[in-house]
Amino acid sequence: MTDRGPTVINTGRSSNSGWIVAVILALAVIGGLLMFTGVIDINGGGGTEVNVNVPAVETPSADKPATETPATGTPATGTTTTPTTTTP
């Protein structure tokens, strides 16, 4: 029997297809990371600043009364009248 050379079986699949898929997948991952980190801005770069600072709320102290008491004494108009009496 004589020796024969190697037999090549062609399956119709390119050996470069795995590399092509890997490169496309790597580009998609890199693009996603760049968009996620803000290097690529797809919103047009128009950043809107929102002021979310809330003013401080002061609690009433215990040594001050909650409501003011009305002042007693003369009326605020400053005019005083003396009552007049008439005898029949």
Describe the structure.
With 88 residues, the protein is an all-alpha fold. The protein has 1 helix and no strands. It has one helix at residues 17-37. It is rod-shaped. The mean pLDDT is 76.
List the main descriptive attributes of the protein structure presented here:
single chain, 88 residues, mainly alpha, 1 helix, 24% helix, 0% strand, rod-shaped
The stretches of 5 or more residues where confidence is low (pLDDT under 50) are none
Q: How much strand? A: under 5%
Helix content class: 10-25%
Count of β-strands: 0
> N-to-C terminal Cα separation, in Å?
164 Å
Structural class: mainly alpha
Largest sheet: none
Q: What Rg do the Cα atoms give?
A: 46 Å
Topology:
Elements (H helix, E strand, L loop, with lengths): L16 H21 L51
What is the structure about, briefly put?
This protein has one helix spanning 17-37. With 88 residues, it is mostly helical.
